[in-house]
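Practice problem: predict the structure.
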Amino acid sequence: MHIEEYIKNKRDAFDSHRPDKEKIWKGIQTKRKSQKQSGSFLWKAAAVFFLITSLALAFGLWQHQQKNEYLLAHISPALLKQEKSYIHNISIKYLEAESFAQKSSINFAPYQKELDEIDLEYKDYISDLGQNCCNEELVQILMDYYEKKIRLLNRILFEIQKQNEYEKQEQTIEA
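Answer:
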């Protein structure tokens, strides 16, 4: 019985392995700060990258539009409104498709290749337009180009959205 009393009296001396509350709390705070800083840095970097990319794309589209702005309007003022509408729709759909592709894991390069091929045809038509200014058949071909590009961009948007939905379904199945 003498040992039990000794243990009760010296209990504080035996409990030498108590955690240091201040040290633990400081460790938690430093980990939280480092996680908070690294996470916010990545979001900031992603936001800056997205902003720069968007501005560069908008500038590129604006510059492209300035170079080739309203070519058919020189032939017939009645075509100006229709051509403006086509160019505006193409710009919006292109930005939307690129934005969706950036937000997901989809590679936009194959889609860009298709768009570039159509643009090469367009450049050929434009050079023909310079040589043969008032050819109605050529004007109709250029209008068809705009419609074809809008259809292609709609198809690209559909494919990107379909891929995003598939990826979401895969993630929910895995979870």
